[in-house]
Sequence to fold (310 residues):
Amino acid sequence: MISKLIDAIVNKKAPIVVGLDPNLKFIPKHLMDEAVSDKGETLEAAGAAILAFNKAIVDATCDLIPAVKPQIAMYEQFGIPGLMAYKETVDYCHEKGLIVIGDVKRGDIGSTSEAYAIGHLGEIKVGDKAYRPFDEDFATVNPYLGTDGVKPFVDVCNKCDKGIFVLVKTSNPSSGEFQDKNADGRPLYELVADKVREWGEDSMDGSYSNVGAVVGATYPEQGEAVRKLMPHTYILVPGYGAQGGKAEDLKPFFNEDGLGAIVNSSRGIIAAYTKAPYSDRFDAVHFADASREAVEDMIEDINTNTLVDL
Fold:
């Protein structure tokens, strides 16, 4: 699966992913009004408005971007209607030819981890019929439980041609409370990076592994360190833009081949119409046009300031 993502990145010359993390405060009033008119003030209306919002942004940007990353918590907060909107978003993005990275941060042990892996990446049989429940292309995985929690995902990746991104050094301010602590004389995130490299050796797909890593844009020094530890690992880089990560700090996340990293922006794209400079020219009705321009600006920023040559 990583080779498919790389092909999409190279073909569009865009090492970026758009985070589809809808929040009702981002949903334009006219979309919410339409949903409430149809379904009342219900969770179903929230799900319908979110789906309409996502579709408009995908329609406006799908020719520019290789992938999207829906964050499942933003859908789960609306219960079953939200999860239905999540699934419909995944399917719609696939229809538009996009790679889908399910930001689900799952991780457990044994049969529980296997169930998570099957639900998001794999296939399950009901009688004689086989189903792919959520059917994302990649999923994010929490490695805190160790190999017991990750191996079931790797097994499903190998069976179904899928991929994962394992949390190594996250972009949030308090990540260092655990991830930076020394263990055996090294920061914990480096030990996790070593394991990601090891797990990845069991799922190579060309020059890179289907087992990727999550390393935040807000920690460029740590990004440089783990890049050296994981030369064949693709890095998903959150934290660009709204969280403070800057393109000029991201060069160490990439390999010399111009590959090796894909940078995420969520609010900076989907809520672009609410903030300068886009709010000066786009109103809520034209929110998707603002998102398209924000994507164009992000691609230029990343490619120029990281010196990526695709």
Notes: The first strand starts at residue 16 and ends at 18.
